[in-house]
TrEMBL record:
It comes from the Eukaryota. It comes from Culex pipiens (House mosquito). One of its GO terms (molecular function) is RNA binding. Pfam families: ArgoL1, PAZ, Piwi, Piwi_N. This is Protein argonaute-3. Residues 357-471 form the PAZ domain. The lineage of its organism: Eukaryota, Metazoa, Ecdysozoa, Arthropoda, Hexapoda.
Amino acid sequence: MSSRLNLVRTLLSQSSSSEDRGSGGTSAEASADTGFQTRTPETTPNSQRKIIGRGQQAGSVPTIGTSGLDSSESDNQASVVSSNVGPTLSGRGRAQFIQGLLKQPLESGRSVPTVADDSASTISSAPAVSILGAGRGRFMQQLMNTRADEPSVSDESKTQLTEQMSQITIAETVQTVEREPVKRMGTKGTPVQLMTNYIRIACDPDRGLYEYEVRFNPEVDSKVARSKYINQHREVIGNAKTFDGVKLFLPKKLPNVETILQSENEVDGHTVTIRLMYKRKQRMSENIQFYNILFQRIMKVLKMIEMGRKNFDPSAPKLIPQHRLEIWPGYVSAVDEYEGGLMLNLDVSHRVLLQTTVLDHIRTIAKSNPSDWKNLVTKSLLGAVILTRYNNKTYRIDDIIFDQNPTMTFMSSNRQQQISYVEYYKQQYNITIHDLKQPLLIHRKERRIAGQDKPQELMMCLIPEISYLTGLTDEMRNDFKVMRDIAAFTRVSPNQRLNSMRQFCYNVNQNKEAREILEVWGLKLDMEPLVMKGRAFEEEKVIFGNAQVGVGKAGDFNRAVTSSNMLSAIPIRKWLLVHTNKDMKIAKSFMDCVQRSCRPMGIEVDTPAIEVLPTDKTELYVQLLRTKIRQDTQIVVIICPTSRDDRYAAIKRICCSEIPVPSQVINARTLANEAKNRAIVQKILLQMNCKLGGTLWSIKIPFQNVMIAGIDTYHDPKQKSNSVSAFVASLNGEYTRWYSRACIQSKKEEFMNGLCASLEKSLRAYEKLNGVLPQKIIIFR
């Protein structure tokens, strides 16, 4: 770089020196020294110098002109270089070199040296040297010529421009234009009017969510102090607001773009100036979370109890006294923006609660299993959700401490004294704890503290005697009578669902506090769910092995499934039937029913190999399966006298992992009712055929070579570290054959890792069966 710089400076010096000497030097000599073809055009002292590079595009650079010096000022005065500075151009090679050359005299104040005699020479009259070429230089010259032709800006124009710039505010001037959504309407089927479970939320056009940036002078670091200063000006900003310490959101726009407020520091009495600077009015789609928070507030105003993501009404329970159960009605809600604007998605939900306490549950287990009751209690309660009726809150059981009891003490909230749990509940809720030897239930939760990166873990101790179980036990789920009585309340018709939604809308609009939560933000909930146009398709035909059956308007074809031949039936020749000695009669009845039902369904079933166990001990099932399952065994059917998770898990571990074979586990109680045996056995035969690779039925699919995949994840609350991801994908065009895979996901492992591996394996299986890969993949999540 230094050699090129010296070269150009020498060139300029020779040019100016030759002009001083008159005929002492020519441009040809300079050309011989530099390798450039040079010309000496007749130009004014301040003309621009052309610099052309090798490229095909070029720009112009400022003129390296000179200004005359009076010879009387100094005999040896250095020459002065001036330039009309153009736009800053950055580049590489010559462009960067010339740009640096032009900047150096201006930034460092150094002049370009000239070769002159002892007398002071005035170089302002020296003609500029024109260096011609092609590329970047020509482009830069054209640019500078254009700038040189522009008229100079007067002082008056500069003043006007400054005034205009000072009037520009920080508010955004670019308005986002929201386009109308594209609506595509179907043409097939019959048009029908549909009642949806969406309720429109009307929005006042003069209201919304207005964003302001808040600045404090002097700076206030504490978020709590910032909020305190903001709250001192409710007469200006109103009562409704949301403030995160930097951004302030208001339901209305303030009169001025910038609002100045004054607050007083309570510590030193100094004035704190608050500047509210208007940014913009946010779109509805940007504030979906905020609208959902508003409806959570409304749920609390309506005195509903939040459990998970749902809210339930404890004031209107449905009692099932014969099973010591009660059902709370409730809703699951979500706000989002759709084609018609902001809407509330509302659906009916129910929560089943037991009228028995956790202590009752512990005593029942301890009475039936006195030797191992602690382990059984831990397994049954870990991860369970309980309700404390004294405050109507729910907690998850994370641990059970058997070596502590309610007489243990803890530091009170004011940290003034130690207090026992018995004393605490008596003072706070007027509740008397009777069993002083019961264990304590542990609930852990995390709380974030300002200034700390990691959240603080808090441990809460709960008393089993005043804690109630929620949900259903496995025994209840397997009890037909219990499930039937529960379904009488939880299985609602469309009209009942509609009436429940209307009741919610009525409660919100009639409750003054709930209504004001919406009105202050310019919102109003409609009284009726949204009605829209839909289309009813033609009746679908279900294809069986020997017939095509219409499903009717109700879409019910259960009778046709058991009375028609299966589409693809696998003959069952070699299979194993296992039962206990006391279930001999039930097993014989099952076999008789299988022989009567199999032929109408189009499946051939031979007599199985029967194994009888003396008792229902789990280890007996495991030993028998390990010894009796053979290479040609198609399926194993096991009739168990009761439902037990440990036994079921042991059987499936043998049949799914250790000795892979299809298996069917049947609870003997489901076969006890002989009047319903035929229907139950028919459904069992359907399951057995599917597990062997058979096909029950199909429908006409309007597209080909498309894979349909499904994904789900199971999180066990008792094992927080791992979860199980399940993946299924169709393999054939009739969607009757499927690939399935499950994988364990650690807590910190990326979910996509298991998904990618599962999808890759399913694609290989699809290609192996069909010879080609699918053209499209539809994934349901």
